[in-house]
Design a protein that fits this description.
390 residues; alpha/beta; Rossmann fold; Helicase, Ruva Protein, domain 3; Arc Repressor Mutant, subunit A; 3 domains; two-stranded antiparallel ribbon; 7 strands
């Protein structure tokens, strides 16, 4: 196996995810899923493996929704996938096609024409899904919709919050009405920020509470060690103590496959023998590299986009500044006191509590059993301290 940081991993080379994948398929027998994953944790590799190796009777279809900016574009993507699926079985029964003909809406070109005082997109989505679930085919289609929060954010900016709510409510209604309809929302970190924005716009809705949340965690240590060992062997990197080297690689990478691949690639490029010391040196150099090959700056640059209320973005940075150099996890009151001492402005305790909860959901923080807060990932804590000069 060769190191391939950031590249497409062959499904056969995706290690340590079989149990999680099996769990997701079992859940899909009963209900739709929200797959919540931190970036670079291996979510895309999991999805590709599920699409390449589905159980008998399933047909997964992956769609990246990041580039969708309108409800009409979304409805077109749904329509086209359903049409392709039904075409596999030579089925022609089609409410959706009939609707388009009766509405005189063309299906070609980069965009579809709007006709009448209301948009057609909702009817098209509903009729497409009705066509899908009414046809008794030998396989069940399941949508894997990636970057749903990006799409909803795009639609909020282009068409307004009400349209975003209508999309979510329409999909929820379809899931409740048609028990065979299945969808997986992936890349759903940030979805709660979109829902909070809709709530702040006084558009109360609970559009995903019927979808089962599944979190993708880093690899278990045993699987991280297996991945590191396979990469060292595949790259023919010498080591006097392979077990110690693989354990060091896994631990320094926080058990993220992406960082494990990067460490091994650096060892190979440097012509370095794999030892705990050489692994540590590689990681230290990567954390201060001005080119940011591990794309860690994303943890800083995404803050203003996620925390748009008042001065919440500033508060998030202050919390991380407090926790990064702390020798032990800190309780809420201790964080509050330190922020009050560091910040020129006044911070309300309730506001801090709200932000802390959001930061936990965004994978910045985790809580100990006694309720104290700490960085969720030690690697990100180390990088934050260096990036902020703490």
């Amino acid at each position: 196996m060769k190191a391939n940081p950031g590249g497409n991993i062959d499904p056969a080379a995706v290690l340590g995810r079989d149990e999680l994948i099996q769990t997701i398929w079992e859940i899909l027998e009963q209900q739709s899923v929200r797959l919540n994953a931190e970036r670079r944790i291996g979510k895309t590799s999991i999805i590709r493996k599920m699409c390449a190796e589905p159980p008998a009777g399933w047909l997964p279809v992956f769609q990246d929704l990041e580039g969708v900016h309108t409800a009409e574009q979304f409805s077109r993507q749904v329509f086209e996938v359903v049409q392709n699926f039904l075409g596999r079985w030579k089925r022609t029964a089609n409410r959706a096609e009939q609707f388009l003909k009766e509405s005189k809406i063309g299906v070609g070109g980069a965009s579809w024409e709007h006709r009448g005082p209301h948009s057609y997109w909702q009817d098209l989505v509903v009729k497409s899904i009705e066509d899908l679930v009414d046809e008794k085919c030998e396989q069940r289609l399941v949508f894997f919709w990636d970057e749903v929060p990006y799409m909803l954010g795009n639609i909020c900016r282009r068409q307004g919050e009400e349209v975003a709510v209508q999309i979510l409510d329409t999909l929820r209604s379809l899931r409740q009405t048609h028990t065979d309809f299945r969808v997986v929302f992936t890349g759903s970190i940030g979805l709660h920020h979109v829902l909070a924005r809709l709530h702040d716009a006084h558009l109360a809705t609970e559009p995903v509470n019927d979808m089962y949340p599944v979190e993708v965690t880093p690899l278990a240590p045993v699987h991280a060690h297996q991945l590191a060992a396979a990469l060292l062997s595949g790259e023919r990197i010498p080591s006097s103590d392979c077990q110690a080297a693989t354990e060091a690689i896994a631990e320094q990478a926080d058990y993220f496959p992406f960082y494990i691949h990067h460490i091994v690639r650096c060892l190979k490029s440097n012509g370095t023998t794999a030892t705990p010391e050489s692994v540590l040196e590689v990681v230290q150099r990567q954390l201060v590299d001005a080119n940011d090959p591990w794309e860690l700056a994303h943890y800083r640059t995404r803050i203003p986009g996620y925390y748009q209320t008042g001065n919440d973005a500033e508060l998030v940075a202050l919390v991380l500044d407090c926790l990064a150099p702390a020798a032990e996890p800190l309780g809420v009151q201790e964080i509050f006191n330190r922020i009050q001492n560091q910040s020129a402005g006044h911070t309300e305790r309730e506001r801090l509590l709200k932000v802390l909860r959001l930061m936990e959901r965004d994978h910045y923080l985790s809580r100990t059993l006694d309720g104290k807060y700490q960085f969720r990932f030690p690697l990100i804590r180390r990088w934050w301290r260096l990036d902020r000069g703490l």
